[in-house]
Design a protein that fits this description.
By secondary structure, this protein is mainly alpha-helical. It is built from 4 helices and no strands. 79% of the residues lie in helices and 0% in strands.
Amino acid sequence: MSQIAIVAAAEAALDKLTKLNKKGEYDQQVNDLNWVLASFKNDGNPEGVYQKVAEAQTVLAALKTKKPRSVAKSLMDTLAKALA
């Protein structure tokens, strides 16, 4: 998939995790996504972005299992397509 799609997916995951991070339980994922997005903008290497989007997908999928309405299916589809 294109670098544009993975960056958009990373930004969408970051946005969702930031909104869900009221108690600080997703600080690590938020910090990691911020870091890899900044790194990608500096060096253009998407490898870290793919890795952190995959991790965010896992975290969000687990959350969706517990609370189905907390994570939109469209976000999960976006992440899956970007990682395909």
